[in-house]
Every structure is written in C-alpha cells, then in structure tokens.
Design goal:
The protein is of the alpha/beta class. The chain is built from eleven helices and seven strands. The chain has a single domain, classed as NAD(P)-binding Rossmann-like Domain (Rossmann fold), CATH 3.40.50. It has a seven-stranded parallel sheet with strand order 3-2-1-4-5-6-7, sandwiched between helices.
Length: about 260
C-alpha cells in the first residue's frame, strides 16, 4: 500500500515539473503546483513567483514533501540578474518557508552538470563520492543547493534527497542536441522515467536523512551515472531508453 502524500511541486509548469506531477498523480498522491506560468492539467496550482512570499506560504500549508524544481534551468546571459535570483534567493525562500511549515521531506533536484568534465573523463559510472567538476555558474548554483540541503538535514532534521538529474529535454532543439551525441543519449532522462523517479523519492522511507541520487533512463552505450542508490532508496529502475519519450516533447518519437 502506498501512503499518499501531499506534495508541492515548484516549477510545475516546466518539462521536468510536468513529468514529476504526472508521475505523482499516477501514484495517487495529492499534488499542488507553483509556477510563474499556468501548470497544465493541475487544478490545484498557484501562478506566482518565488519572491511572492504570501503565495508561497499559502502553498506550503499542509504539505508533506516539497519537490523544488523552480529554477533557471541552464547557464544564461547576465547570471547576476537572470540566474542567481531564482536559483539562490528563490531557493532560500522555498526552503525556509518549507521548514517553517513543518514539511517533512525536501526533494532538491540538482544536475549532472555538477559532474560535467568527469562525464567525459570517467571513471564510469560516476557516483555520489566522485568530486564535482561543474560546467559553469548554473552548475555552481546546484552545488550550492546540494550544500544547503546537507545543512537542512543536519541542522533541522528534515529528510533531504538530492537528485542529480540527467537530461530531460525541454524542446525540439534540445532533442536534436541529444541525438547528435551518444554521451548525451547515455544521460537522457525520459519524462516518464523522471515521473517514476520523483514518485520514488516522495515514497522513500522516512528514515532517509540525506541522500544523493542519480537519475537517467537506460543508456545507449555506457552507464555514465551509478543508479544503485536510486534503486535502493527510491526503488527507481528506468524503463525507457533514448529516444523513447521524445514523443511527449515533439508530438512524435524522434527518428532522425
């Protein structure tokens, strides 16, 4: 029997956010959304910014688990104005309000980009013990997220799962980028596998204090990330492989 949780997904209108929402709904959980854009097919969703503290406080009420996906999802021009506010200040607001609301678990999505150069160098598969090698400022904000996640587990006794995600493409351009490189196909994360992964994080045992888990679909050539901990803690086993799932982004499966 699955213990139904009430889950707040920030960034619920984004590609990974929608995948998380769909996976959680399929498992019977009560899901609430929060995003600057309307969240498709999710009636209980707030349209607001992370700096709207009144709206964010209301969204936290009665929540068991926060899946905090709201962020600028890659390196951008002018990071001081376009990357740091949502990824640092927004993270601060979300975690502090979750703590004040008594949220039991934080699921904090990081990125495989924190291991960017080791993705190419190995030794594979990379696990949570491998020293980080961030691609750029976006990955640095995810390293900040991972660090403060450790603090919330140790200082506030919250259950924290840090998720180093593979590449779940947002649009046709990113699908083409993945199609051009086998290494990107190896770290591809399909929307359906992403939904299964986040459901597993929400349903993980309450005894989990702090964990770093990798999430990808099945590789095409080489297992770049170690999924052992994701299997043990979140009961996650990928079911798909590139290009399965691209039909969700493109309307039809990639055949290039």
């Amino acid at each position: 029997m699955i213990e139904k949780k009430t889950v707040l997904v920030t960034g619920s209108a984004g590609r990974v956010g929608q995948a998380a929402v769909n996976g959680l709904l399929k498992r019977g959980h009560n899901v609430r959304g929060f995003d600057r854009a309307p969240s498709p097919h999710l009636p209980d969703a707030t349209v607001a910014d992370l700096c709207d503290l009144d709206s964010l406080t209301k969204s936290m009420k009665g929540i068991d688990v926060l899946v905090h996906l709201a962020a600028t999802p890659d390196d951008v021009e002018d990071p001081v104005n376009n990357l740091f506010p949502p990824n640092i200040t927004g993270l601060y607001h979300a975690l502090e309000l979750a703590r004040e609301a008594g949220v039991q678990r934080l699921v904090l999505p990081s990125s495989g980009q924190v291991n960017w150069f080791r993705n190419f160098e190995g030794p594979w598969p990379l696990d949570e013990t491998v020293p980080v090698s961030p691609k750029g400022w976006y990955a640095a904000t995810k390293m900040f997220l991972e660090s403060i996640g450790h603090s919330y587990a140790a200082t506030h006794g919250m259950s924290v799962i840090i998720a180093r995600l593979g590449w779940c493409p947002r649009d046709a351009e990113q699908v083409r980028e993945i199609a051009d490189e086998t290494i990107y196909q190896d770290v591809y994360l399909s929307p359906s596998d992403a939904g299964r992964f986040f459901s597993g994080c929400v349903e993980a045992e309450e005894t989990v204090s702090l964990a770093i888990l990798y999430a990808t679909s099945n590789p095409v050539d080489k297992q770049r990330y170690c999924l052992k901990s994701a299997g043990e803690i979140a009961n996650f086993e990928p079911q798909e492989q590139w290009p399965e799932g691209t039909e969700i982004i493109l309307g039809k499966r990639w055949e290039g």
